[in-house]
Amino acid sequence: MIKVGDKLPAGKLQEYVEVEGNGCSIGPNTFDIEKETSGKKIAVFALPGAFTPTCSAQHVPGYVQQADKLKAAGVDEIWCVSVNDAFVMGAWGRDQKTSGKVRMMADGSAEWTKALGLTLDLTAKGMGVRSQRFSMLVDNGVVKTLNIEAPGKFEVSNVETMLKQVA
């Protein structure tokens, strides 16, 4: 499992891009994690699934509402990562009004989540392999803080914890 001080594992995430530009076409675009984190401070939070109750009512809205405070504290980007496809993450981003605040990054096959060692098996609930709920502050590709939730909890991966850690 990833830990504080580790470099993020190599991998790719997808993001549904609404407006063409900067070499990105409209629709799903694939991004190399190493390139995207190089020289940046990124607040990453991950959750079990798009449109699920805690994720939609608390986790994403908290980061959207506090995005300006995180950026004022030196965070370059905020990523929401989930084991969903880029189309679902794009639709969820529109629903949650994340544009310009939180990048909705899809790990459709859970490859990056597996590389992090942070999977959650929800097969018995019909959801397959998902991500544990967690947050981490990443600086130039290196994990500076890591907050992993206990099963069924939402106490340490919230935006309030992240704001304390970037201050």
From TrEMBL:
GO CC aspect terms: cytoplasm
A single GO molecular function term of this UniProt record: thioredoxin peroxidase activity
Alphabetical list of InterPro entries matching this protein: PRX5-like (IPR037944), Redoxin (IPR013740), Thioredoxin-like_sf (IPR036249), Thioredoxin_domain (IPR013766)
Broad EC category: oxidoreductase
Transmembrane segments: none
Enzyme Commission code: 1.11.1.27
The protein's name in its UniProt record: Glutathione-dependent peroxiredoxin
Organism: Piscinibacter terrae
